[in-house]
């Protein structure tokens, strides 16, 4: 055993994990994340589903970032049966999306300029938490920028533009699902049910692609992974095109739905609002899949 340990050579600790630009970004992520949820938990406060979501984002991202720093600093990641490059790239993109969402939601629902009725101290804590939440998003975005694949570089799939877009596509699909379950009345027509099937199918396949990349199991597949992903992306573009036409027609055409928001619809509980959110993010995901397809012609991983 001693000979095996000696033959590996090199230092036991990887100082580059905390001194490189990416390492410094991760240390700042850990610092800003801990500061943000500590300010909220100590005095800022949170409530309802959106407050709980923000706290989950900050604590989840903090925990995974600590795990990544620890593994890279101690070389423990070499013992894991996953593709480490794909895992860190995928998490950085996911954390960027989650942190920017929390950085928007928390001040939107909890920050106010006046002291009444929460008191000046609580208000100041909430403002400070919002500032650090914004900084947290910036440093996660910085990691994505630093680790992204450069033109002509052979790298991990999740570090490429197409790989990063897969995370964004799945995240946007989650927003669509959230709006679907919020009384969107999608079961009213077979056509809108088809749209839900499109969103579900594309989400599942995208998650499977990410999972295979992160676990490093693509080499075990009996078909070429790279070519299959491109073919799937082309199919997803066609499917989302159909949903981008069908959903607005069956929700906003006067024959099937309502072209304008009903006046008696309660805020936060109006099917028309959910339908509008779904329509907007359907076009967002369609655009993402088109860009993904264009970039997939230029990458090698």
Automatic annotation (TrEMBL):
Subcellular location: Membrane
Keyword Transmembrane helix appears in the UniProt entry: yes
Segments forming domain MARVEL: 17-152, 157-301
Name this protein carries in UniProt: Myeloid-associated differentiation marker-like protein 2
GO cellular component, as recorded: membrane
Coiled coil: none
Annotated signal sequence range: none
Segments crossing the lipid bilayer: 48-70, 82-105, 125-146, 158-181, 196-222, 229-250, 276-295
